[in-house]
Amino acid sequence: MDIIRFSEIVKSERVAYKYLKEQCWQKSIVYCIRCGKQRVYKLSSGRYRCYICGLTFSDFTGRWIGKLKINARQWLWIIKLFELGLSSRKISRETGISYPTALKAMNLIRKSIVAHTQDCGLLLEGEIEADESYFGGRRKGKRGRGAGNKVPVFGILERNGFVRVEVLKDVTAESLLNLTIKIVRRGSIVYTDKFKSYDSLMFCGYRHLKVDHTKRFSSGKVYINGLEGFWSYAKERLIKHHGVSKKNFLFYLKEMEFRYNNRNADLLPILVTYMCDLVSNVL
Ligand SMILES: [Zn+2]
Questions:
Q1: Per-residue pLDDT tens for 102-116?
Q2: Distance 59 CA to ligand 1 centre (A)
Q3: Among the four 146, 206, 254, 270, which has the fewest Cβ within 10 Å?
Q4: Could you tell me the fold of the domain covering 127-240?
C-alpha cells in the first residue's frame, strides 16, 4: 500500500476503524464469533448480540486486534512501522504508545504470522537446500554444532521459492528427518552439507547430494548458498532486537521467514488480514 493511500486511511479514527471493520467481516456479513450463525442484532452501544447463543461481542472481539486497548489508527500505524522493520522502542517513540504496549502489539503481530503460516500444508519441492544454524547466546564458548546456550534452527529452502524454519530440540538424524518429511515432497533433490545426521535422507525417498565445504568453490548445482543467504539475512535483522528471550524466539524467527517469503509482496495488507482474523486456540 503506497503512502498516499495509507495516509488517507489513517487520517481519522472513523476511516481507520471502517477499514479494519471491512477486513473483519467479509462482504459486511456479521456472524456470531462463537456459534457462527448470522442471526445477530445490533445493540445501542454498537455491539452485537447473537439470537442463538446470546453472546455479546463487538467488531474486534476475539481477533488479534481486539487483544489490546488501542484504537484502529494506532493499530494501523503500528502495523505500518512493523512492516518498515522498526523496533518496538522506536515504534513507541513514533506513536506515543507506551513501550510495554508497543512491545505487546508487535508480539501479537508475530503470533498472528505464526498462526497463519504454521502447518499451512504447503510442501516444498524440486531443488531443496537443508541446513541448520545456531542463534543467540554470547560469542564466548563453543560455536556451531553442539554450542551450549545457542538455539539450533533448521532451515529448508526451495530454490527460487519459499523458506521454512523451525526451532529444533536437537540436531539428531531423527529430528532433522521428521521435519524434512513434514515439509518437503518426496522425490525432491535435497542438498545438505556433510553433517552425518542427513545421511538417512536417501532412505526416505529423497535424492540427497552433499556439499563439500572444504572445496573453495561449490561445483555446479551442489551448494547451499541460498540458505546461507537467509541465515545472514535473519541474523542481521535479529541483532536489532537484542536479547530476544527463548520463549519469544520462535515468533521472531517466523517473522524472518514471513518477510523472506513475502520479500516482493506488499506486507501491510497481508498483516492487516492476519490481525483481523479470529484468534484460534492453537497458540
Ligand atoms: Zn452465537
A1: 999 999 999 999 998
A2: 14
A3: 146
A4: Nucleotidyltransferase; domain 5 (3.30.420)
